[in-house]
Amino acid sequence: MSVFLHPRFRPLYEQHPIVLVDVGARGGLKSNWVPARPHLRVIGFEPDPREYQQLVEKTRSEGDRITFFNTALSNRRGPMTLYVAKDRGLTSVFEPDRQFIDAFPDADRFDTVEVTQIEADTLDNVLAEGGVRDVDFVKADTQGSELLVLEGGRHALSSSCVGVEVEVEFAPIYKSQPLFADVDAFLRSLGFALFDLRPCFWKRAAGRALGGPQGQMIWADALYLRTLPSMDAMLDALPPDVRRPKLLKALSASVLYGYYDYALAMVQQAGSVFEPDERSDIERGLLQGDPADDALPTFPGRRQVAAAAHRLWKLSVERTDAWSISDAELGNPR
Question: Domains in the chain, start-ordered, CATH in brackets?
């Protein structure tokens, strides 16, 4: 189904577009957000001047639907040290932990080619100064400093945000960087729950051809959605005229990542936010648009057939010397 649930809600989405804050916007809008593009407003942050300029040029025709800031975000306003990597996509405010990463292939891409000072600000400060009072979703990929970015956006996250996609590390790619447990604890304290991880595994150079293709889990893209009690509390704190569009956008985020069951639970708990006929249209759309309806029907031996097909697929996949592998997408497969 459409992430916008039903054509009757189009005027609401036009008046209240989904506001996505993209921190670390290198490369532009991620493909999983393309279905939301018709009613999407993007506020992007990219501290690399060259990448920032490319993003501005690439999206010039989008008008005010996409706004980029050549700004580094952190949990405080002030100067920060930036370690510019040979692969500029690995640049970070944390120094690479060479004692750890040198055990893996292609470690030289983390080589620091420049150390410079940059001015950082907080997400809450930039949004307030830009008159942005409502944010629906935050995506953060900043090479180890994601927790600092989220801490600097505490107000936006707690007051209006319905979901977060954030890169997390399970091992110290950078010195003194926060790890998954730190990010998870912070987001849970604000009423978010972990829904999915898209992990990336690295194999060490000494044995990259040994065993199966999977090495140590090093990092992952993590998806968090607001819990149902937290959603209720946030809606109660909002002015009555924005509760309905906010809940619609929370439903859209759930559908975008394939969590139809959670969207249905939100609708059923919504109470008086929707009119009875609106609620019926949304529920009908969720039930009819569930990708599970396209699955093979249940029959005796179905699990055995699926297991055999999976083994055949694994045997047919050509072995390579790839040392870094990850799942294809984040969220419930559709």
Answer: 7-296+320-326 (3.40.50.150)
